[in-house]
Amino acid sequence: MTTSRHRSGAASLGRLHPDASPERRELALALRELFQRLDMPLRAYADKELRAASSVSRTLSGERAAQEDFVKNLLHDAGQRPRPPLSEEETARVWALFRKDEESRMDPASRIRLLERIRRELEERLRELEDSRAAADTDGTAAELDALRQRLHQREQELARAEQERDQLARRIATPGLREGGGPVVIRSAFTPWYAPEARPDRGRYWPAYADLLARRGWPAARVVSLDEATNQVVEKLADPSAAEAYQSKGLVITPVQSGASAHITGSVAKAVDAGYRLVIVLTGPTNVLRYQLQRTLDRDLVGRENILCGAGESEDSEYVDDPDWFKADGFLRHGQRPSSEGGFDIIRLTTRDNDYKSLRQGLAALEFEKRMPQLPLNDPENLHATSVRLMVVKKNKATLSKLVKDLQGIHPPLAEIPTLIIDDGTAWDQGAANTHRKATGTGTAGLTSVQAVMAELLNLLPRAQYVAYATSPFGGTLMDPAASEDLFPRDFIVSLPRPADYVGVGDFHDIDSDVPDEQRTFANSQEKAHVRNLVLRDRDDDQGERQAMDMFVLTGAVKLYRAARGESEARTGYRHHTMIVHSSDLIGRKREHAARLRRLWYEGSYDRAEGLGRLRELYERDVEPVSCERADGFPVPESFDELAPYVSAAWSRSDSDGNAVVIESRYTDGEHDRYELDFTRRHIWKILVCGSRLSHGGTVEGLTVIYQGPRTDSAVALSGIGRWAGFRVGYRDLMRLYFAQVPGDTGGGVFDTFTTIFRDQRSFEEDMARYAVEVDGRPQLTPAQVPPLLAQHLGALDAEQRRSSLFNAELVEIRSPGRWIEPLAYPVDAVAKARNIQQWRPLLDVLAEPRVLSGRSTSLRARTGLVPHARLMDALSALEGAGPKLRPHLSYLEQLGREPGSQWLLVVPHPAGDGPTASVLGFESLPLFSRARRGDGFGRITNPSHESAVEAAMGRGDGAPSPLGAVLLYPIHEGEDGSAKEGEADPSQIVMGVSIYTPEKEEESPLLRFRSLRRP
């Protein structure tokens, strides 16, 4: 970033910063006018305000965003005697410019939050004035009241416009069900409604208690309501626990990674036990820490102190006596007394915080269910609602589950009478999940792992068992292979939960949908520019990448302490955790070597001496300050490094408080001297963690602010870390940094691009689910059984043989996609097939005219365009090799559009930014060439959102001519050696013609999907 440092007095403020936005420049000019009224040196004013002179200078030049208190103080000082007072119009104009600049830097969701905050403030002021008017009805108060009403009306109009802008953007980049705060997306089979808790409020105990606990912890009412609605979507699709006929409902809940799925699990279990489910088995990931975390959450938020103590006095020891939440009023749930003493039912735990399920540990009688009416089955309402719940939290481990199966086979009453809920929280992001060639395991159950086979046996034992799996990705084994894993396939429902409020997802670090040209991207309008740092090192021994990431860890920790000292919202916990992850290896020896290297860097960092502080100053002024000034979302930003410096030492000391700032995070390390197990519930953690792939199986690192991976990171570990970026980052979202370091010639340098492609695939599928979840004529367009063939459209790894072997029971034959861009996703690798595809496109290129400019909403595109007859385009698309299985369902729809004679399509070939390479291809001169990185048999998404925006705008301007049916963007991608096609003729066998197709949105009620049933052999 170019920086300016103006240290002169009022006589010379220097020039406005050249990179300042129009809104920033307009505000800076207004602030400079106010400052000139003061007639005092800049340094003197800075000293008076306890600010750095450089900070004041940058604010007045438009380089730095003005903070609200700076504007407020300057307005006050500029109107003080002996200067003439400022008029209300002058003050209002400055504040309007301030808000305008603030809003210009916000995405629509942030802008909505700002406007709603202003609206609430105005409404509160209105109520105060109305109270005053009732007490003393003066003309002045009435005039002020009318003025405020007018301002409130203006803000309401702005809010409506912003909401409209937000909705328009959301329709283009996502679907309503996936937006922050939207409702869940539900794909379901037919079911019989039964769940009506409002009809029997006397049976509602655990859900109301949980909802009240969340409210006391500060959850906004809207968030509790959202959780209530989302858990209803699951519980209502389970079978009626008291029904005469047993039925097993099976479902899948897809949650944004690290978005607090435990709250949804707790809420669903609370409602299920209130409704009558009496055996609850919660399966976790394979490690003790994951089982411990979920056991503690359920004990704290659902079971409650009285059920944990089992009638024992407060003075007696509890397993949680060392837990800080045990004695807090809003910590562990308090029922007042055991629920059974008040006519309710207790929850009996068969596992504890420190003990997994162990055969006969508490006696076989612990699994025996009591009956108030012995002559009636347990599932009869007379017995069901007077019987205690049995709860166990069990690692998904074959040996442990086998013990449970054995014990269940020896109890009474009959297992067929026990309404059971099985929650499977052991599914997380897994690069190998999409595998339709898993082998039989020797258990006799083809296609199942040994653990899945035991789970299938458990389900067969319990006819009234309901199975609900939680996953952070739709690309899971049971979805990919319904025939091989029929016992676990979510045949009844799939629920995709929306992003919660204040959640930071993987997509918040990408510019996937940005239509801002690369050269115009700034810290304010680019997620990648603000948070991602791509570094090139000299060689594998170059430690400058790790040094910079470590410096960022210290700096961001200092900013957290600075904010905590100023009493911001997160300061209530004092920023309990501050962590950095260094992706290393799964080999403990390599992790130890890496940790030793980082410890040396830490102690050589000189963080308490001039050398280190000078390095931190440069990084703060170059990176931290400019990003936070744009993205701090109201949290304070130090005026200068000098203001932050006292907190640097504190951050360094806190991280090194036990003499070991760098620790190894490992799964199975009992007895190792450098073992460090994460327990964020019982202690504060400020550490640099050297990690392998363990956390990809569900662990959460709290306070995560900096991630580093470089040439010493194993590729498997690098890919496993995609979900670690996500989570709730209240109070430090602007401080997050992702470092990707590589050496020249490193083939792993595209890890971030790989993440981008994976994220695109997953989000594209989730968007499709949301679109197809809308019922047409009262019937679902998509059922869970039809999801696998749709999912296959989003996975380039599945070839025709794999699709046949997976035995899908339906084939997707038509996809209607009006208003959306579609791409084949797969392209041939074979040189001969590539050459034949180019020959199919070659005749269509003759319609292209000389380059012209297409203007979008905020960008423009230079491209060659022309109109292609519908029949010729369909012939070319139908003849393409390598894209057929993915493109064919779309073609079934596209072919129907050209019923009118003379129908045409707009063909667009963009020109790369700058002087990109061109070549002659099969006699067509000056064809622009693009570069894209392959992933499997495809490229991920090829198009640029700014190109799409410009083409959509061109489609909307008919200029009196008949509108084309749609548009086709072509990207000639050169896969030959660098420089081989910069001049002269390009070899067609080295070119792939990337294709993206768009048809305008239409209002129609017909289904967007059409399937054909398949017979299984």
Structure description:
The strands form six sheets. The chain has an eight-stranded mixed sheet, sandwiched between helices. The protein is built from 29 helices and 27 strands. With 1017 residues, the chain is α/β, with parallel strands linked by helices. Residues 1-11, 168-179, 428-446, 668-673 and 796-808 have low confidence and may be disordered. The chain starts with 21 loop residues before the first helix and ends with a strand. It is 37% helix and 14% strand. Helix 10 (261-275) crosses helix 11.
List keywords for this structure.
single chain, 1017 residues, alpha/beta, eight-stranded mixed beta sheet, seven-stranded parallel beta sheet, 29 helices, globular, disordered N terminus
Instruction: Report on the biggest sheet.
Output: 8 strands, mixed
Strand order of the largest sheet: 1-8-2-7-6-3-5-4
Beta percentage is 5-15%
Quick one: overall form?
globular
Count of DSSP-assigned helices: 29
Portion in helices: 25-40%
Summarize model confidence as the mean pLDDT: 79
Low-confidence stretches: 1-11, 168-179, 428-446, 668-673, 796-808
Radius of gyration, in angstroms, nearest whole number: 31 Å
- Overall strand count: 27
Spatial gap, N to C terminus: 64 Å
Class derived from helix and strand content: alpha/beta
